[in-house]
Amino acid sequence: MLRNFYFCRGRSPNDQACKIFAVFVSIVSIFAGLACVPADGALKATGAGFLKMGAGARAVAMGEAFSAVADDVTAIYWNPAGLALVKNETQIIASHLEHIQSVHHEFIGLCKPVPGGTAGFSATYMWVEGIEARNPNSGYAGRSVPVWDAAPALSFGGFLRSRLAAGLTLKAIGQCIDDKMAWGGALDAGILYRAGRSTRLGFVLQNLGYESAFISESAPLPLTARAGISHKWKPQNLLVACDTVYGINDQALWVGAGAEYRPWPAMAFRAGYKYNGTFSSVDLMNGASCGINVRIFSTDIDYAFVPFGLTFQTHRMSVIMHF
Questions:
Q1: Could you give the CA distance from residue 109 to residue 117 in angstroms, rounded to a whole number?
Q2: What is the pLDDT of residues 104-148, one digit of tens each?
Q3: Alpha helices, H only, the chain
Q4: CA distances from 19 to 23, 25, 198 (A)
Q5: Among candidates 149, 155, 151, which has minimal Cα distance to 176?
Q6: How far apart are CA 101 and CA 310, in angstroms?
Q7: Cα four-point dihedral sign 39, 40, 46, 51
């Protein structure tokens, strides 16, 4: 690795890009090494799992390999540094996910260029319906239990140099189970580097923060580190991306890869896969994803399909309006 790093020195046009790429590869190697070091022989239990469910249908259809793409309003979630790429317009997104077992997930967001960069606001809301309250003595208590999670957030991203952008997202966290509540806050921080005319490198740390306990039980937030690379072939309108993701508190490593092909200005096709280190004939489809985009005037309509094994499927729709 060091030999490759110093080999880059002195190569004038791409000297800095090559050094940044070496750092990127080093970070990915560290993630892989950490994942191989056992702690207590089992995965850590983390709370606020809804923070790991993604935003928007485009990134999900591409295998969630989006930290180095992040060129629209969903950068608020995937990499706030990508907000710097939204320079000349305001974008608004509304996204809906129908998950398994009556779980519903909503994401709304807005980003707008301001002096020095681009500011954003978002709100994530997830709820579960049909959970019956039970009395330990008489059984059904005659009512449903409210279960919801919410996370409003403020973001900002801007260019530090001509090729290097940085961004932050600050979010509040609230969770409710019946009459019990938990509150917290978290920070996302990311960078995005243009390594060439069509290549980007991204790195983001998500969910660095704290949440209070439900009564006496508490769990750490799903602190996550992402490192990604993307490349676009403009004449062919083909975008490919790959993310290496390490769940620091989950002690889990996975890799996502995806592609987006736009044969016509008004339509795009997407596909991706998330690999967590296991394969079997039963869960081969668990990790695959695909989707489609239709662009009508200044509005993008995106759909993503994600199967869970052979039994369950999830559907996500999102609409992004450009002003």
A1: 17
A2: 999 999 999 999 999 999 999 998 876 776 666 665 656 777 889
A3: 2-7, 15-35, 57-61, 75-78
A4: 6, 10, 17
A5: 149
A6: 15
A7: positive
Q: Give the model confidence (pLDDT) of 14-61 as tens digits.
A: 455 555 555 555 555 455 444 444 444 444 578 888 999 999 999 999
* Domains (range + CATH), the chain: 46-322 (2.40.160.60)
Return the amino acid letter for 76. I
- Burial string for 70-86 (b: 16+ CB within 10 Å, else e) reads bbbbbbbbbbbbbbbbb
Q: Are 34 and 26 in contact (CB under 8 A)?
A: no
User: Can you tell me the distance from the alpha carbon of 96 to that of 82, in angstroms, rounded to the nearest whole number?
Assistant: 22
User: What does the chain come to in residues?
Assistant: 323
**Degrees (nearest 5) of the Cα angle 47, 65, 193?**
105
The label of the residue with tokens 């800095």 reads 16
